[in-house]
Design goal:
four-stranded parallel sheet; five-stranded parallel sheet; 17 strands; alpha/beta; 399 residues; single chain
């Protein structure tokens, strides 16, 4: 309970939501210092006094792991190899399983062979199954044989979208060693860089490499420094005709200038009330582009509306609301968290934009596109008219 931790170690009401998730995680896995100590817990709470001090290392255990079929298959192969080794030693192979829930979404093997006619999607699916049958059979074996492992079949969707719309619960539940059901924040690591998309739903998650993902599968903690948290305050609301893409290009431009590499970004402020969950997920999805570890949002009515829209059970939605309010994850506009640094944006100033011409952080407003494009073309080809001799001939070529 975060309220009990606050009573014992100090006020946490102004701790950023993302830091509260880390705090709850450390409290739940505190083991006398073997991996997590009370000093780690105190360090996260004391972070409020010096939010730029990020030298303390902590051991963080995500609730689950998200894989895709490109980097995820080797993880399943390793589990199969472990079972082979146990079988050779005469042991019980059924004991080799992931220790946390693992979802592998098959989406990276998709190729387009047919297009431009009504049966294109159906035929592409047939070709895909034929082309990848051995791999799919292996993953089907994994989903049947391994506990805590679930393979999402091809044709369902992109992994981070499936994670947002179907897998994520915002508040996760499991049964502890005393057979008591325990509720705690839904958290994950994934082998797709855009795992961060689920931060829009109040689920802390980011992309990791295959080795880190496999370690998390086997119950090992993710070692990390207590992060700096950059607060991004929104005020106002978007004008008519301005899209989430325009907003995210503007935010990416500002965040890249501010510098957020290796940091958490957390969005807050009265402007959040004007952003749909889809808008928030778009902002969170772009965390790799602006360089942050994640782009996090707290929980509010928009979160509940999205859970309801995507078919989550009412009991789960009620749990999310009750848990968020009790544990302090519910957005309260009257409380402004403490951050390492902050930015502010009036949503009403965002205008239609394009990214480019080369990088996503190079935002260009629509009225400026003509001039910027022409200037870039002139600059790119300013060395025109050069001529180059062709080896072995008596002539040259040029523009």
């Amino acid at each position: 309970s975060l309220s009990k931790a606050a009573a014992k170690y100090g006020d946490i009401s102004r701790l950023p939501f993302s830091m509260k998730v880390l705090l709850e995680n450390l409290l739940r896995f505190e083991d006398g210092g073997f991996t997590v100590s009370t000093d780690d817990v105190k360090a996260v709470i004391d972070w409020q006094q010096n939010p730029t001090d990020t030298n303390k290392e902590i051991q963080y255990r995500p609730a689950r792991v998200l894989l895709q079929d490109f980097t995820g298959v080797p993880c399943v192969v390793d589990l199969a190899a472990m079972r082979d080794a146990i079988a050779t030693l005469g042991g019980d192979t059924s004991r080799i399983n992931p220790l946390v829930p693992v979802n592998l979404v098959i989406d990276h093997s998709v190729m387009v062979d047919e297009f431009g006619h009504p049966k294109a999607a159906e035929q592409n699916m047939e070709i895909e199954y034929e082309r990848n049958m051995e791999r799919y059979d292996f993953l089907k074996w994994g989903s049947k044989s391994l506990n805590n492992f679930y393979a999402v079949p091809p044709g369902t969707g992109i992994c981070h979208q499936v994670n947002l719309e179907n897998i994520a619960q915002t508040v996760w539940t499991s049964t502890d060693q005393d057979c008591v059901t325990v509720a705690y924040p839904d958290t994950c690591v994934g082998t797709d860089s855009h795992t961060t998309m689920v931060n829009g739903l109040g689920v802390l998650g980011w992309g990791v490499g295959g080795i880190e993902a496999e370690a998390a599968m086997l119950g090992q903690p993710v070692s990390m420094l207590i992060p700096e948290v950059v607060g991004f305050k929104f005020t106002g609301e978007l004008k008519e005709g301005v899209t989430a893409t325009d907003l995210v290009l503007t935010c990416t431009n500002l965040l890249r200038k501010h510098g957020v590499v290796g940091r958490f970004v957390e969005y807050f402020g009265p402007g959040l009330a004007a952003l749909s969950l889809a808008d928030r997920a778009t902002l969170a999805n772009m965390a790799p582009e602006y360089g942050a570890t994640c782009g996090f949002f707290g929980i509010d009515d928009k979160t509940l509306d999205y859970l309801r829209l995507t078919g989550r059970e009412e009991a789960q939605i009620a749990l999310v609301e009750a848990y968020a309010r009790e544990q302090g994850f519910w957005i309260d506009p009257a409380v402004e968290p403490i951050f390492s640094s902050t930015l502010e944006l009036d949503l009403g100033t965002v205008v239609p934009s394009l990214a480019g011409p080369k990088r996503p952080q190079d935002r260009v407003s629509l009225p400026e596109v003509d001039d910027v494009f022409n200037a870039d073309m002139a600059n790119t080809y300013k060395k025109a008219q050069q001529r180059v001799p062709v080896a072995g001939t008596d002539y040259d070529i040029g523009d």
